[in-house]
Amino acid sequence: MLSHATTREWLIPYADGMLASDERGRLDAHIGGCASCAAELREVRELNLLLVTLPPAPPVAFAPFWLKLQATLPQRRALRVPTFASYRRLGLAFAMAAILALAAASAAFAAPSALPDNPLYPVKQLEESVRLAVTPSPDRLPLQIELANERLREAQAMAVDHKPLLAATSLRALGVIVNDASAALKHPTDPRVASKDLHQLRDGLAAVERTNASRNDDDADLKQVLVADLDEIDRIEQPEVGSTAPTLIVGTQATPKPTPQPTPRPTPRPEPSDDEHHH
Amino acid sequence: MAQPEVPSPEGDAEERRLIDRSAAGDQEAFRQLVLRHHRLVINVAFRALGELSLAEDVAQDVFIKVHKALPSYRHDKPFKHWLHRVAANAVTDALRRRRPVVSLDAMEQPPASGVSDPQDVAARHDLQRAVRHAIANLPPHYRDTIALQAFGELSYDEIARALDIPLGTVMSRLNGAKRLLRERLGDLVSPWEEANTA
């Protein structure tokens, strides 16, 4: 039979249903003959009852909640370009004109080569966003590849400059661009060009990884984004299941194709359990 | 106690995509992320604070913090658990800042189902307020742990994952927290049971 002290120690996990059945049985046996532990268990259960009966919130409409939140968020560019109706194109044309006027005024400062640590970088992002928006879908792929390479250039420069977090942000944006372009890259008009583009991106990612490691900024976050970007490129290059005609095999076992060997990847190191990411 | 949810791989992949895109500045992706989780966060805040307008304000703060911190989120734990931790921190901060006075707004909350007597409603609100106040004044390691159980309705296992601590530590913290709560709430707990069983 359990001691009085151990029983008291186990009462709370017991009331929360966290004890194994044999432990529960031993506790039951003690409580059956101990009035003070039984009384304490009742108190524990009363407290639990109070905790679980805190009422849930009544329904809240999402739209006003989002609008209020959106107003306080820092404005960033929208990366996905939706299909535009003609009136939206017209609106964009006006917006483009306004942006061009602004850009002309600040052209001397907001160079297209601005890096993420440059205060004028948001202007560059805005310009790119507008360029993407006004480019018709069929012609968008070359621009997306150009922007993806620009993100690589930024990541490389940030890695050289011991700024792995900014490098990771650029690589994350690269992943989004590649994801957006994935359909066009899977079914390109010129497969050789697409293959060359993807190869170039893969090489660029490897170069960023090497630079980061050589600067002793072996940042786990950066590595994780690198791996995700490489995965995205892999997914694009992988032939789609069912894209080729099925082969009819009669009277013999199908021999599976050899499993493609994965490209060597930087392995993310275990992350330290700091509080940076746990708020 | 809430059972841990097992999200589907497709759901995980979609959420991961939304998180990555939000971190890269895609506001539509962030809107979808908020749409998925705003009920959860408002609920945690309302259970902790008892006032809807205050709960919505705290939920706004939570999502602003999440938006800011997303670029450093590493997918090393389920997003929901990470979000719970941010929400629990925000609501316990809000609880501590709040003076423990009887709020007319809180008294005007709709009564829980099955409780219609104004005296019962008032007694229930007093008790809930006392519990919230007692939780807010616990030592931080107890407070953070029990907030996830009481306000977030997480299981022991989910709390362990949200706080990156062993299950045994969750048990000992909840033990300590509930012992202190019982001491501090004193007689407030027993009369409530009597009132309900009478």
Provide structural commentary.
The complex is a heterodimer of chains A (279) and B (198). With 279 residues, chain A is mainly alpha-helical. Chain A is built from 10 helices and no strands. In chain A, helix 1 (4-15) crosses helix 2 (21-32), helix 7 (140-160) runs parallel beside helix 9 (191-214) and helix 8 packs antiparallel against helix 9. The radius of gyration of chain A is 29 Å and the shape is elongated. Chain A starts with a helix and ends in a 42-residue tail after the last helix. Chain B is globular. Chain B has helices spanning 9-23, 27-49, 52-69, 79-97, 104-107, 118-136, 140-150, 156-163, 167-185, 189-197. The model of chain B is unreliable at 1-6, 101-113 and 191-198 (pLDDT under 50). Chain B is built from 10 helices and no strands. Chain B is 73% helix and 0% strand. Chain B starts with 8 loop residues before the first helix and ends with a helix. With 198 residues, chain B is mostly helical. At the A-B interface, helix 1, helix 3, helix 4, helix 8 and helix 10 of A face helix 1, helix 2, helix 3, helix 4 and helix 6 of B.
How many strand segments of chain B? 0
Determine Rg of chain A (CA atoms, Å). 29 Å
H/E element string of chain B?
HHHHHHHHHH
> What proportion strand of chain B?
under 5%
Low-confidence stretches of chain A: 77-83, 241-264, 267-279
Distance between the termini of chain A: 44 Å
Helicity range of chain A: 55-70%
Helix/sheet category of chain B: mainly alpha
Cα-atom Rg of chain B, whole angstroms? 18 Å
What's the total helix number of chain A?
A: 10
Report the helical percentage of chain B: over 70%
Mean pLDDT of chain B: 80
Shape of chain B: globular
